[in-house]
Amino acid sequence: MATVPLKYADIGINLGDPVFRGIYHGKQSHEDDLEDVIQRALDAGCVKMMITGSNLIESEHAVNISKQYPGTCYATVGVHPCSTQDFDNYKGGSEKFVQDLRQLALDAKASGNAVAFGEIGLDWDRLFLSPKETQLKYFEAQLDLAVEIQLPLFLHMRNCNDEFTALIKPRLDRLPKRGLVHSFTGSADDMKSLVELGFDIGVNGCSLKTEENLAVVKDIPLERLQIETDGPWCEIRPSHASSQYLKDGPTIPKAVKKEKWQRGLMVKGRNEPATIPLVAHVVAKVKGISVEEVCEAAWKNSIFMFGLGTGTN
Fold it and tell me: What top-level branch of life does the organism fall under (predicted)?
C-alpha cells in the first residue's frame, strides 16, 4: 500500500527578506533564488506558505509575493512591535499610517492574498527598538483594525504575558477565530493561558532550543498546534536540545555557504520552508506520537484558522 505523502503549511516564513533574493547585508552575494526556495518547499510537501508582514513595506512585499504565487503563498499584514515607531515617524503622521495599513489589509483580504493581521504584539526583551508606551499604543490600535477587518491574529509575544492578555481579552468575542502566537518560546503557564483564551501556538526551531522549551511543546494540545520555520531564522542547530531527535530525521536538501552558492542547493544559515519536516519530526518525537498525527493536526488547524485558499476562511 502506497504511503500518503506528508503535507505541510509553513505559517511563518519571511520570504520578503532580501536574503531570499541573494542579498546579504546590502550586498548581492548570489543570484535571486526565491523561485528555487519555493520549489524546494513544494518538493518537501510544504504546499502552503504564509509570508510574514513585519511593517508596512514588508506587508506590501508579502502581498506582492502572494500574488506572484497564487494558491501557494499568502500574506499577513501588520507591524511588528519592534517596528511600532514607524507609526509616529510616518510621512503624514500616525493617523495616515493607520489609514494606509487599513487599506492594504482590506484590499489584500478582498483579493484573497491576506489571511491574517500581524505580525503584531509586544516584546519587552527589545525595548531598545521601541519603548513600552509605543508598543502598547499601536498594539491596541492594530487589534482594533483586526477586529474591524475581521482577520485572525498573527501574534508576537516576548516576556509580556500580563499586558498582552489584558489588551486582547476585551476583544475576544469579536475575534471568532482568535489567532496564533507564532514562534512561541514562552513558559508552560504562558502557553496554557493562551490556549485557554482560544489561541493556537506556532512552533519552529526557536521553540525547540532548550529542554524547557521541549517540555512546553510536549504539552501543547494537538488541536492548538501549528508549525512554521520562521526562515531565514530559527533553524534547528546542532547545539539545540531538539537536535538529539534528528539522528533518524528526514533528509533535507544540501546547504553550502553563500559564497559557494549553487542553484538547487540551500544556503547555510538561511532557513527556508523545505526544512519544516524537521520541525514536525521533533514535535512528534517529543510528544511520542507519529509524524503523520502532527502533520494532520497542524494542517487542519492552519486551514481552519487561515483558510489558505481552501474556502474555509
Answer: Eukaryota
**Residue 306: its H or E element:** helix 291-306
Q: Do residues 112 and 54 make contact, with C-beta atoms less than 8 angstroms apart?
A: no
Give the separation between CA 179 and CA 164, rounded to whole angstroms: 14
Q: Is the pLDDT of residue 313 over 70?
A: no
Closest CA to 178 of 160, 163, 193: 193
Q: Which three cell numbers stand for residue 179?
A: 489567532
> Mean pLDDT, to the nearest integer, of 148-177?
96
Pairing relationship of beta strands 179-181 and 27-28 according to DSSP bridges = unpaired
Question: Hey, which bits of the chain come out as E strands?
Answer: 8-13, 23-24, 27-28, 46-51, 73-77, 114-123, 153-158, 179-181, 200-203, 225-227, 255-256, 266-267
Give residue-wise pLDDT tens across range 52-98.
999 999 999 999 999 999 999 999 999 999 999 999 999 999 999 99
Residues present in the chain in total: 313
309 confidence band (pLDDT: 50, 70, 90): confident
Contacts 24+ apart (CB under 8 A), 83-86: 83/54, 83/55, 83/129, 83/130, 84/130, 84/134, 84/135, 84/137, 84/138, 84/139, 85/129, 85/130, 85/134, 86/55, 86/56
> Under DSSP, is residue 259 helix (H, G, I), strand (E, B) or coil?
helix
In this structure, the number of other CB atoms found within 10 A of the CB of residue 224 comes to 19
Position 144 scores a pLDDT of 98
> Per the structure block, which three cell numbers stand in for 136?
502598547
C-alpha count within 13 angstroms, C-beta hemisphere, residue 299:
17
Question: What's the rounded Cα separation, in Å, for the pair 182 and 50?
Answer: 12
Question: What is the average pLDDT score of the chain?
Answer: 96
